[in-house]
């Protein structure tokens, strides 16, 4: 039993308490399109959050935590070395007078994903004008979410991990590694459901 006031032992890899370690659900995948996850601070230590599992599984994945980002640092993060490469934002098109989102942009080499609730993600867009300027990627006919431990307000709303994996499959093509990552995600969801059920007993 952990003494009052002391911290629970944590896994050195996933940084979660040992009793909630998510390392068994990590599924390595060598993604070609880099992922930049912009994580709202409220999501950073959320037990149900999926960004850390995604980061541990993908070869090319970074997480920046914040609500407002330094414009110069963000511009540098979004820059690409070649003119035929570009950063895209995974987000539904909601701008008036804007063109439709592309389904499979040929030049997307970096995908920016907002790890936040829908309300918080809209605020992050407003606070960071550079994100508003990015071309946007639309998911093609997304399936129902497998994220049973967190309530979605609309049927098409997915977890950060689900949305990111679907987007990578859309950009790079089907991959057994991505399907395996979704299986690992199912294990994570089941684990979290058991932990929350145990807390209620």
From TrEMBL:
Transmembrane segments: none annotated. InterPro entries: DTW (IPR005636), DTWD2/TAPT (IPR039262). Belongs to the TDD superfamily. DTWD2 family. The keyword Metal-binding does not apply. This is tRNA-uridine aminocarboxypropyltransferase. It comes from the Bacteria. Its EC number is 2.5.1.25. Residues 7-197 form the DTW domain.
